[in-house]
Amino acid sequence: MKKIQIKQWLLKPVYMMAALVVFAACNKDVPGPTPIAPAPIVGSSIATIINSDPNYSLLKAAVTKAGLVLILADSTRNLTLFAPDDAAFAASGVSADVINALPAAQLAAILSYHLVPERLPAAAIGTVFPNRQTPSFINPAPSVSALLRLTNFPSANNGAWLNNIPIKAVDRAASNGWIHTVAGLVMPPQRFVWDRIDTDPGLTYLKAAIKRADVGSPSASSLEGALKNIGANVTVFAPTDAAMQMLLTGLIYQQLVGQGMPPGDALAAAQQAASTPDIIATLPVETMRGIVVYHLFGPGLPGRRAFTNNFSPSPTFYPTVLNSVLADHPGVLIQVSFGPNTPFVTAATVKGVGNAAAANFLIDPRPEPTGSSDQHYLNGVLHKIDQVLLPQ
Amino acid sequence: MRRIANLLATFVLVLSSTVLFAQTTSISGKVRNSSGLNLGSLSVTIKGTTLGTTTDESGNFRLDVPSSVQFPFTLVVSGVGAVTQEFTVRSATDVIDIEILATATLSDEIVVSATRTQTRALESPVTIERVGLSTIRTAPSANYYDIVGNVKGVDLVTSSLTFKTVTTRGFAGSGNTRFTQIMDGMDNQAPGLNFSVGSVIGLSELDVESMELLPGASSALYGPGGMNGTLLIASKNPFKHEGLSFQSKVGIMHTDGRYRNPSPYHNYNFRFAKKISEKFAFKVTAEFIHAQDWLADDQRNYIRPSASNGLTVGRIAPGTRDTDPNFNAPNSYGDETTADIRGVLTGIGAQAPFLQPFINSINANGPINVSRSGYREAELVDPNTINFKLGGSLNYRIKPDLELIAAGYWGNGNTVYTGSDRYSLKDLRMGQYKLELNSRNWGLRAYTTQEDAGQSYNLTAAARIFNEKWKPTVTFNAAGEPTPQTTDWLIQYAQSYLANKLTGMEDIDAHNGARVVADQGRPLPGSPEFKRIYDQVRRTPISEGGALFLDKTSLYAVEGQYNLAEYTKKFADVLIGGNFRRFVLNSQGTLFIDTAGTIPINEWGAYIQASRHIGKVTLNVSGRYDKNENFKGRLTPRVTAVIEVARNNNIRVSYQTAYRFPSTQQQYINLVVGGGEILIGGLPVFHKIYEFDKYPPYDLPVQPGQTPKTSTFSTFKPESVQSIEVGYKALLDNERLLVDVYGYLGEYTNFIVRRAVGQNTPRGTRVLSIPVNSTAKVKTYGAGFSGEYRFGRGYFGSLNASTDVLQDIPEGFVAFFNAPRYRYNVGVGNYGMGKDKRISFSTALRWQDAFFYESDFTSGTVPAFFSLDAQVMYKFPAIKSLIGIGANNLLNQYYVTALGNPSIGGLYYVRFAYNIL
Prior knowledge:
Radius of gyration of chain B: 30 Å
Structural class of chain B: mainly beta
Shape of chain A: elongated
Strand content of chain A: 15-25%
Oligomer: heterodimer
Strand order of the largest sheet of chain A: 2-1-8-7-6-5
Helix content of chain B: 10-25%
Number of strands of chain B: 52
Shape of chain B: elongated
Largest sheet of chain B: 22 strands, antiparallel, barrel
Mean pLDDT of chain A: 89
């Protein structure tokens, strides 16, 4: 009997405790943090698309050789590839053999210029001038700064363009961005605008004019300095030496005639004086500066790099650097015409306020030294024109 | 000070003028019981005096009666589980044989705090909860302070193992200034830090005689403060409780290794009291606790309210360090520093115009806020929590009914406290010392509280400053202007982030890569480099750019009470009293605006209470007037009635008011906290110091597109509460069931809240947090029920449930109400069973509902939780010892009591106690 008693008093509390525990469920301890889920990956990567689309066979080969597959296959990146298809390679004269022959580094540089580190659907590419400026994957001087980038200039004005190369097809969606197909290779620039002016035998007067305009200016704020600065973003309307000679001859002739020299002598003397750019060093600095900046888009204004295809087919005034001093100046009047039978600009004119007639662009987009329009450099574009633009 | 000196001199005079001692007579007797009641430890006192003794295990007692006590007199025998019994002793030779009846419950206990006179708990005019000796002895708690948490209507906020804050009727939070704790007659609030330190520096467990809890407005009797309740902890008088006692609770915590490795828990208690003669007795007490503290490790993302995000209360949000660059977790410190890298990117864009369009396209040219990398609490705070308490008293009976007591309680501890930030209270020292004269009908007490924050520091500030010392976010020059350097964290971060973005990296990857670069060489927790910088920061005072408090604020108080009943009893029982308090703020500019020297604050008050029986009704009217030098005086009345509807069946009705002066911090604080905002005091002097006339502050948040509205401030006033309470307490079912029910309504006016305002100064925009009186009336109501039942054979059970509700709060108003809507406690146990009733056990289960916790530190939902405590003990009467095993949170179900506070798990202990009855 005693045993049973002990059992009873032992069991009673056990029952009670059990009853208590039934009351309660488990506690929730402090939960761990909830990660913010990354956006879901939808679709194939750019690499997958390139590798599987037969139209991109040359691009596939180039990308593979250049070692860019890993980047294009990385689904966590935000990219836009301006992708040359096989036709584009052909249009640029690049065959499979050329790809095989090119060093991988050079190939990588060319392809990297087609790649932008952000998602740019066609809708994000602006239709108004100035162009959107987007960094590419090329750092021209990593030792200077990790943040240096060559930029490219997509535009949806007058059709779709990357710099001066037409975009054939847009908005192929990939998991890591967009693919737009370009009609040709877009070559990365390698020199400064100044380098062209400095070395082009047909631009010696312009070079002298710029040097004259810079007299008295510290090199940091000089025009030459700007044209050599990677941070600048300019368009230069470069009057040829002939155009400069013509202007100078006229100016000197007028001056001599005004001084009473007979017109025949005056013309000969003027032609003689204008026959070398040295004469420019004798002209007033202010006058030279006024003329030179009227030929420039860029410093002092938002970066304005204009390829011919960016200009309007109807006559339109564009502000020049002169507007940074004379805000109300109308600028230069530019008109371009496209085609026929080609998407490119075939003729273009630019007229200064003081000119009787418009100057012509010397349309020839081939690479330097031959080319004379849409000459693309690290910090700008140069177009040769056949008259000096007069601001008044 | 002079006034205090005078009063102390009075004490000495009283002491030296009373030199007559009379002869004593000895009486002895026996207490008997036929139903197996435990006869040990019953209290035997001479009615109307403080003279008394306790019975031994067999019920025998012996008491010396001084000649000043005239025969016949009445002995009062009371104790746990016994019906209080009176016995008239006519002469010294009387045979004293007292038959005592076991009561079902604690019902017949005598409480003091409800009316400041001895009253049967059953007849208390306001709700009162008493935790007596037997409960303390049998409760399944590693620390006696936890027992209060199982009383109905009580919320216990646990900031750390040894830092717990008791609250009733809402507005919980550590450092709750609306709830007063009185320890052995002294207000236990740290005068500078403004929290009650009861669980750190107070009585040691073996010296606690009782805890009485008065929920609700109670300042009519206990002075300003006590808006929501008052807890009174009484110590054992060495005349009544003699002998050597010892207790150890040795246990283990963190058994599952979830937050820390399994580690021991040590709690040792010692008390020695000796009655040298009928005139003189003394006691010495000590307690030592050592353990690895609970760990606060809430690593969820927390969005702080700021001037720009329009939030008035912070909130938990998705995000981790790896998925949110501006991540900031409640228990990760240093990540409160946040900065916008947009400014740096714009600077880069100006230098590299070809990147400007790209830079502008990031986040639509909006702000890109990033936070510094933080350190977890476990990496910053010493896990060792140590608490040492030392106390004692010298008791001298000038006359049989006049006792002089000199007592001191001193404590020293390491703990963690949650206020506007988390604070590591390191080597915190606080002492309370008193001189007290107690007569049959009057009492006089002078005491002082001396606080020393030791090496306490603000965790958030320490970690943020640590980060700046290691690597500045942005360098500022001597003139306070930002002068970014390429070695600055934010610059390195921004450059690296942009470089990463230029490779097409996903935004978060770009951020994480940038963090790796900016954090390169960041000292690892525990490394010598880390320790060197961190120690330097935490040991440098806040005023000198560190995180250390130099708080040595003190309080001096004198109070007296006189019971005029013997002169006024024809009309009513009248009680009068008064008090004077002087705070001396001394933080050397590290907490208060006391850079130029200490700031004194004086306050005084007086009260009167009259009670009268009219038939079955006892009416009690009391009023109290208080004045603080910085605020207008104020009267707080109280009216109560107890109606005896039947024997042991009482209905109580009360109208109470209470109010409190703004705390010393709400008056004079001047402190920069976590998010960078500046907490300032509410007194007008701050308007001058912060040049409100030159740079008018404006209301926050400023909604986008709106012009800021200039803030207006009305006179800063004390807050007050009016409350109406109805209750019913009864002993039913042959005195086996004690039932208590209450309901209350409370209305707060001039409720003190903090309000953030913005201010634009030449040195930038800053956010000031100013205490103001809310114009909104804050209403609360609630109810509670408790039942305690004796099953017989020593079994008992108890159940209580309570609710507190905040109502009608205006949109956007943050009240910091912080009370679960419902909570309940269930307990079962046995006082004595088995052979010779040697075994006892008790269990306690607490459950509380989920609620939204609001505080300056963090706000968010505290999930519902339960906690089960249990203890089994076995007595060895021959050696007056017991051993037991117990567990707090037996099932090791982690819970938090407030957001950002530690997760509390199971604590399992073995208990040994000698002579604790």
